[in-house]
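Deviations from the work plan: none for this task. Representative record:
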Amino acid sequence: MPTRIQKEARKESLLLNMGPSHPAMHGTIRIMLELDGERILNSEVEVGYLHRGFEKTCEARTYFNLLPYTDRLNYVSPLINNLGYVMAVEKMFGLQVPERAQYIRVIMSELSRISDHLTCLAAMAMECGAFTVFLYKMKAREFIWDVIEETTGARMTTSYIRIGGVRADLHPDYKETLAKAIVETRKVLKDVHGLLDKNKIFLNRTRDIAVVSQEKAISYGWTGPCLRSTGVYYDVRKASPYSAYDQLDFEVPLGERGDNYDRYLVRMKEMEQSLRIIEQALEKIPRPSAPARVMVDGMEPATAIKASRVQRVEDRIRLSPNLEGSEKERYNDILAASKGSVVPPKEDTYTSIEGLISHFKFFMKDQGIRPPKGEVYFSVEGGNGELGYYIVSDGTDKPYRLHLRAPCFHIVSALEEMIQGHYLADVIPTFGSLNMIGGELDR
Amino acid sequence: MEKKKILEELKQRFQDKIKETSVQFGDEVLVIDKDSLLDIVNFLKAEPYAYTMLLDLTCVDDLGEEPRFEMAYHLYSLSNKHRLRIKAQLSEKDLSIDSLTSVWKNANWLEREVFDMFGVFFKGHPNLSRIFMYDGFEGYPLRKDYPLRRRQPRIPLRE
């Protein structure tokens, strides 16, 4: 079946495919262009090459099990994706998350936001020919991912933020690595400002290209840095503060013209604000109520379970190193005090029959996390804008319907109109400035 | 603006076009008659409510119930910092609703997605075609009667 542009195109113009796999475009998306020389007369964007049926899959998974799937939506900032999902579920329960966990969430989502913006701008700069900037930014991102890896155990697919709190407390050495990451990122931001802000080539390719007016941006449902580049003041962190954002002081950078350059600048300034937020959060974060302990000695779990059949086990349990930071003493700091919606501590599971039962109750089919009937919408500020989850619960342990409001989807839907009338070469920086993430766009 | 007030005001103005109003987990919900969608939405978009943004648009399949499908629209007012959810029920026999493409531009792709996944027909949509799936895909994947692991038939190679 011919697509829209094939039907509409004039006979004398040239039809050109960009993508789905194009060296200058990150992500699989197909842009069909109708060209007159190098001018774009018309275009059609085709998405869906990365469609994995996220929403359908989630309907067949329990609330606990589907968390790893959310990592794979916006794979550059998985922690914010986790946060949006768990907060939607928490809204249904009305869970009270401990304050320390709130601050950990803020630190983690700001780190993710920085890595998201760094990736977007690195790719955009590289596509404009600034390979140095690309390498600098990737370097800064490595330092940020070091912090994330240290605490969460993974660089990208973290699944760290859990319903009721976070999986584990911050790593004992997090202060040093985080301080290093902040210093290095600041350095890189300064360098990049120097390399690009007044760079003739970069300005020529970005200034006044793909200008989007405020009205158009709102009509397209734009959110996040792209909307703010047009001068509209809307940030979910400010409009409806969640976690600990209302206790932190930060600014929302705005653009003026809404062109490629403004989108670049807003992202750069937002990273500085994110660093500010992290620094404040580091000062305000409540101290842990229990000291960190090293889990090298203690009873083997298998022996403990056996012993617990005849008598009460009082000994310490040797936990798997994977559980570092989620010992029972830390539960008050990192997870909500709500039985049934958070994983019971492993120490209880191994030493008492009641603990074992509650462990199985949590993971067993038709048990575990069962939010009340009804539907909920909750959104957080993701790297690209408002990341919203719409969950319909029927009272069972699986969501009846889960829908993701992907910020990318709304932004990319404006691409056709943005590149109309521009040169073919302008598609690349325009597309780069939008930060399309295939996993989030196609779900 | 007060939370409850908006729902009451709207109920008074539109009378029986609004079937039900409720507050769920802190979200205001408006269940409307599907034929008056455009009227209500245009009214809400104008001042003083100024719901200038269509945040999201999706559909839920309540298999076994009548009416079977339920559209959910999420609106946001930038000046009042207020969210509102509008729901409209569609029966399987008459699976169509007015398109919002004349009101918001992002409705174009969002409605294509719902058409692709649920088979809801949008009246007045300029280019209602599948967006994630390919032409020749059989069935509507997000409907509840579509099995999770269903296989699709082979399609001929495109020209």
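Chain A has a mean pLDDT of 87.
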